[in-house]
Amino acid sequence: KSIRVWDIAHGAHVQSLEDLPSGVWSVAYSSDGEKVGIGLHDNRVQIRNTTDLELIAEMKQETIGWVYAVVFNRDGTQIASCSGSLGKVWSSADGQQLFELKGHTDEVTSIDFSPDGSLIATGSSDNTARIWDATKKGITLKTLQHDGAVNCVRFSKDGSQFVTGGLDKIGRVWDVTTGELLFKLEGHIEEITSADYSPDGTRIVTGSVDFTARIWDATNGQQLAVLEGHTDEINSVTYSRDGYRIMTGSRDRTARIWEAAPWEISEYPGDKSYNLMQRYNLWSHQRNRERNGRSN
Length: 296
Description:
296 residues, single chain, 1 helix, four-stranded antiparallel sheet
């Protein structure tokens, strides 16, 4: 029943909001950093300012159960949420419902706006992901099939692709325009719970019930790194806005901040005779030596 705000540069706790009406399931910032959306276990959505966490608006999903996800559109004027078999889009100024996303036949567990705000993606326990037209108040454009429940959906930063992950342990990257499956992300040994793109769109990070987060090449699905250290399932992953850090949240009651790999190949050691994975391994070895040197 609380949220905490942290300084990611130092890991310091800077702000708290206690005694919310029920447990917190999802949290999202607006892109300008002025608002935070909160999804609660009792199907409420709250919008608060980030200065003092005072309440701006509170809405109810009209479904029984928790709000699995909340997300703002890019300009912060709208916030989308999902609970039960519905997605809903609200005005972030006053909490007025603008339209709903109706069509899934089971729990909607994830939701995301495209960068330009014209599309919305949802993932559901009905084994599908859907793309909706946000300019026509929620018309379904595409329905994409999985082999199990879809736990996460996320658009790339340029809006040309989106990634899905779920119960079948496989991430899938799709072409937004055609709905074509471009490639799979295979490596997790338990279901995928969350995913995000790096700011430049060249990397994808996924989190899983297998206690790991993994970094992938967003152009071909090659696995680049495994982030190990959590002692329970990872529920959430995200890149920082500058792309230099990855944040993970886990059922082990910790959140961790990781140093992300460079996204420009020129930043890796080695020359053109080395492929990307070899150059990444050189970089990782170099960083480990530097850390070990500082700690000795």
